[in-house]
Amino acid sequence: MARRKKIYEGKAKTLYEGPEPGTIVQYFKDDATAFNAEKHDVIEGKGVLNNILSEFFMLGLGQIGVPTHFLKRLNMREQLVRSCEIVPLEVIVRNYAAGSISKRLGIDEGTQLPRPIVEYCYKDDGLGDPLVTEEHIAAFGWASQQDMDDILSLALRVNDFLSGVFLAVGIRLVDFKIEIGRVYEGDFQRLVIADEISPDSCRLWDVKTGQKLDKDVFRRDLGSLTDAYSEVARRLGVMPNNPPAPGKPTLVN
Ligand code: TMP
After folding, report:
1. DSSP H helical segments within the chain, as ranges?
2. Closest to 94 in 3D by CA, of 202, 225, 226
3. Domain segments of the chain as ranges
4. Fold of 6-84+225-236
5. For ligand 1, what atom is nearest to the CA of residue 102?
6. Which letter does DSSP use for residue 210 in this model?
């Protein structure tokens, strides 16, 4: 069997050349990292859960007309996506204060923000993904003004969609990060939601108890990450009713 071509290996995913031009296979690894990979562990089952959760959110976004790079899930750990050029920004939307904004501005974690706040970080691991302003983005040509208008509108639509989906299953969407891709169609470019949407890239708190159901469980050593992600998948109906044995998640289909 021919060996497929690896395009890129990231901290949580590996990208391979897809079966057709313009496609990529995204393989979800079990690796968990935090603090710019200073902390690292392998959490059995995480990749499977993130693959199916990201599929669920990307399909839902597609259904409300938010374009994404997602094409189809291939198997437990892989999905086929459209190849795109990644805008070098991490787009963060915050509904409640937590994490870096709490530290930076001295706001207690859990404080509801007056309105969703959108922040941009420059994607550069060597620099630790620093927070940047639209002035930097324009001056260094990372995105045009039209792109920034579109990115803001996409980010807020994703926020409304995800907030509603999570609230319906008793989970508060505290904040999340998305990445944006450019796809070219003839002379035109279109922006799409790329990368992944999963508990790795969101903060998710149980509405009643405040229990954390996201990667902070790993970052802050709060217990089993697989249990937390399985709970999210179970509530969203993408896991079977019988809880899987720890570290052995099972798909519905
Ligand atoms: P922060 O509070 O650490 O800035 O994180 C904000 C959100 O972005 C949170 O949901 C976690 C997510 N995030 C990532 O997906 N990747 C990252 O590298 C970081 C630092 C945060």
Report:
1. 46-63, 99-105, 134-139, 145-167, 216-219, 225-235
2. 202
3. 6-84+225-236, 85-206
4. Phosphorylase Kinase; domain 1 (3.30.200)
5. 2
6. -
Ligand 1, residues 96, 179, 201: which to mutate, most atoms within 8 A of Cβ? 201
Query: How far is the C-alpha of 95 from the C-alpha of 190, rounded, in Å?
Result: 27
Q: Check residue 246 and report its DSSP letter.
A: T
25 DSSP β-pair partners: 16, 80
Distance CA 220, CA 215 (A): 9
**How do residues 89-139 score in pLDDT, each as one tens digit?**
999 999 999 999 999 999 999 999 999 999 999 999 999 999 999 999 999
CA neighbor of 179 nearest in space, from 205, 161, 201, 153 = 201
Q: What's this model's pTM, rounded to 2 decimal places? A: 0.94
DSSP state of 188: E
Query: CA–CA separation, 58 vs 193, rounded Å?
Result: 8
105 to each of 101, 102, 219, how far by Cα in Å? 6, 6, 21
Q: Which strand (E) or helix (H) includes residue 70?
A: strand 70-73
CATH topology of domain 85-206: D-amino Acid Aminotransferase; Chain A, domain 1 (3.30.470)
Find all residues with CB under 8 Å of 244, minimum gap 6, and list them: 45, 230, 250
Contact yes or no for 120/137 (Cβ under 8 A):
yes
Mutate to test the pocket of ligand 1, among 57, 92, 225 (most ligand atoms within 8 A of CB): 92
